[in-house]
Amino acid sequence: MKQLFRWVFLGLMLAGPAYAADVVSNATSGVRYPSLATAIAAATNGDTLVMIGNDTLQSTPVISNKTLTVVSDGSVRTIYGSTNCTDGMISVVGMEGTLILGQPGGDDNSPTLIFDGARQQGVHSLSNMFFLELGWLTIHPGVVLRNLDSVDAGAIYSIAGVVEMLGGSIESNAAPYGAGILNDKGEVRLYGGRIIGNVAQIGGGIYSDGAEWMWNVIVGYMGKVEVTSGLIADNSANAGGGVFLYGAMDFMGGQIVRNTASQGGGLLYANGSTNFGLTVGGNAVMASNTAPQGSGIFNNNDGYAWLTWQGGGKVVPPNDVFMAHGLNPIVLAGPLSGRGPAAQLTPAIYEANQWMLAAATTNDLWVVSNYYGKFTVTPAPGDPEPWYVNVNGRLSRDNSAATPATILSIASSETNVEWGVEPAFQAWDGVVELATNLVGQAWNFQPLAPEAYSVTNGRVVVPRDRPLGIYRLRTGGAGP
Length: 480
Fold this sequence. Notes:
Elements: H1 2-15, E1 24-26, E2 32-33, H2 36-42, E3 48-51, E4 55-56, E5 62-63, E6 67-72, E7 77-80, E8 90-93, E9 98-101, E10 113-116, E11 130-133, E12 136-139, E13 143-146, E14 156-159, E15 162-165, E16 169-171, E17 174-177, E18 181-184, E19 187-190, E20 194-196, E21 199-202, E22 206-209, E23 211-214, E24 217-221, E25 224-227, E26 231-233, E27 243-246, E28 249-251, E29 255-257, E30 267-271, E31 278-280, E32 285-287, E33 297-299, E34 307-311, E35 314-315, E36 320-323, E37 330-336, E38 343-347, E39 357-359, H3 365-371, E40 375-377, E41 388-389, E42 395-396, E43 406-412, E44 416-422, E45 430-435, E46 438-439, E47 442-443, E48 446-447, E49 454-456, E50 459-463, E51 470-475
Parallel strand pairs: 3-6, 4-7, 5-8, 6-9, 7-10, 8-11, 9-12, 10-13, 11-14, 12-15, 13-16, 14-18, 15-19, 16-20, 17-21, 18-22, 19-25, 20-26, 22-27, 25-28, 26-29, 27-30, 28-31, 29-32, 30-33, 31-34, 32-35, 33-36, 34-37, 36-38, 37-39, 38-40
Antiparallel strand pairs: 1-2, 1-3, 23-24, 41-42, 43-44, 44-50, 45-48, 45-51, 46-47, 49-50
């Protein structure tokens, strides 16, 4: 028995040391690697790295001058950070550096590629998960960035880089600034996915700073945040629960909901210029956020911050837009669509003739006179009398939208019947009705379908091929 033991022991010695299982396969070359860091270092431009196991990073790999894709083999694979990472988990550096996470066929309901900051494992020294400096990061559905407890920035820290979310989730991260994304003069494009449940001092979901500073003075702006879909929800911060913004942002779709802050529950807009301001439009929705000032948007309209409204973008009451200084009005860039209010406005000081709405040029003033009624005013504390936005876009005690309409003109052509109405009748706050006969000693008024007539600048146009009858305009009958 002793002789057999000696031979077995000698055989194990000759076989050499045992290695841990490989966790990454290069789909392009077929080579396998024991860690993601070694696979990244060995990869060439265009390679796809497939996670076939879990990994804990023992260094911070750098991607530059090449495009790499990291995917899962279909099983749930997790890459953890560690205290051995010198900065963040992965860096993408240079304009030729690109990292693609996941693939178009991924499923956010069943994520398979997870990057974990290892907060539960006691890692509290990381600066970020992904650091971009002029690099590009694309996130597909089925990818999760979670559990980072950062000493600096959030899950993604981008300096003049591009972050593109087509899906995926950035969730449950903590950082002083931008717990989800800290964007420094770069581009953030949210076309899908979720930024949820993150906590920061400033910018719970996103902190975007596009300002160029010199001697404590802003001398210009760069970069942009573009949200056309996706969800920014359940984040919290002292300022800007969902988003903290210096510079440009187009909020044209998706939802910013259930975020919390002391100022700007949904979004705090600190500063921006004419070309690098905040635009709310499309089918964007902001609702159910919480803050003592600006539960929806805290608008630092100090003469520089430029907030533009268009289309069907909504801040749903009781969420409000807090106008912190009263120096810059909200600029209406074109017709507003959809029924119900576009936003509830809260002025810093309640006084008659306060400037609330304006147009980009004097030729566009009709937009204000047509759509002022889509903006309500938060009641002044302790004041039983209501305030309104007037037809000229100013704060007033008079409710211009309640003034009875008067038909000023009627015209007919070969194709249309048209009448002019004062004050300007709006498609969003009323309906055109048609009666063709009497029913029980009353006209049988029925609303026309919106496509059966058009409303432009106070003129109501009905095609002549509509049935002969009696038309009337009725306000307040359509819900939001």
